């Protein structure tokens, strides 16, 4: 999946997928010519972009060697189909795979395995299983493109060389992949370091036969001193695709929170502020939801702090997906999580969380955020002019927002978006990076329409536009 992220994000920085495929195929061909002495070659192509890389390699090789292409599956992606047509125009013999054709592989001096890439999983199905066995039985030298077909399964191609792109992939070693050549195909550094539209491939589209509640149920716990914050978070969760959005808020303000939208299911808690007497009620309710947001508009009364502390502890114990925001951040401390928590501080709240005053230098900030996330086994989404997202292992930056988003409430919107994604089963780190992109992108659309008069509710209104773009352009 991360390769697809890089492909899509690279286009933002002047390196579209078509150029990446061209560079990948050329790298395979150059490696073949440099490493092996052969007169004829068979290129086995699958239907995806891995097969497209093979088609490009065949075109380059055909200028110096006898080459034929066997299409195990018909080219599906737009750029793979384009390279199929280019290979055909180049006069390269192209055959559609038929049962028994794998016997012809014994006549080849070199086989290029471009059948399945990293998007494939599980054991090989036919005809890939039969072809992989035939490749391994052939006396030909073998080069796999990016990864060997079937890597990690009972049956897998065992190449002499694997030409992989950008970086070696998980599970690859010389025993299962032969000699590993890492080719630089021109992926811009920013495509990996910065959040972009490619990160959105992790958004889980609902099944057509799914029912209410199966696409995410979110609970927001907040309010008391403030009414808008929990309402914004809960509404943003719905706009991001959650089926149901519950709110627990003190009875003093529950009618005001409920008045924001009839779509919210708002439940009152006795009194003016969240306190310890409410904890048992909330704990009992946690089994009904997939993700929790705690903190928006909560206030910093001692009772609210103690209640938030108990609820956070319970969510961690239950391994419940959780976003810790605003006033709940100060009680989180150094407790260790299970990787299923996102904390969303700005610089001041980060100091409350860690005791660390962040420097202005972005690289120093990155190191500190990554280390603090690692210590807590959680994801930290540090909000600022440049957002920093880290789970202690990986780290990304987000530049997707505008100066109008200093308006109050956009942070609450962000927490609702992230919780909605987590309620759908998206991992904490992926939800945080996607959430930052969705929030910023929606904010940019709102800014185009409302300029400096934009509000947090304007941002929420544009979230569906971002999701529509995901479905039409990415997924």
Summary keywords:
UDP-N-acetylmuramoyl-L-alanine:D-glutamate ligase; 475 residues; 40% helix; Rossmann fold; nine-stranded mixed β-sheet; alpha/beta; 16 helices
TL;DR?
The protein folds into two domains: 2-193, YjeF N-terminal domain (Rossmann fold, 3-Layer(aba) Sandwich); 200-474, UDP-N-acetylmuramoyl-L-alanine:D-glutamate ligase (3-Layer(aba) Sandwich). With 475 residues, the chain is an alpha/beta fold. The longest helix is centred in the last third of the chain and has 23 residues, at 428-450.
pLDDT < 50 runs, ≥5 residues: none
CATH domain topology of the largest domain: UDP-N-acetylmuramoyl-L-alanine:D-glutamate ligase
What's the N-to-C terminus distance? 11 Å
Largest sheet entry: 9 strands, mixed
- Please give the radius of gyration in angstroms: 26 Å
The fraction of residues assigned to DSSP E strands is 15-25%
Instruction: Give the CATH class of the largest domain.
Output: Alpha Beta
Which architecture of the largest domain would the CATH scheme give at its second level? 3-Layer(aba) Sandwich
Strands ordered across the widest β-sheet: 10-9-8-11-12-13-14-15-16
Number of domains: 2
DSSP, total strands: 16
Q: What form results from the Cα inertia axes?
A: elongated
Which class of secondary structure composition applies to the elements? alpha/beta
Q: Roughly how much helix do the residues carry, as a percent range?
A: 40-55%
CATH superfamily of the largest domain: Ribokinase
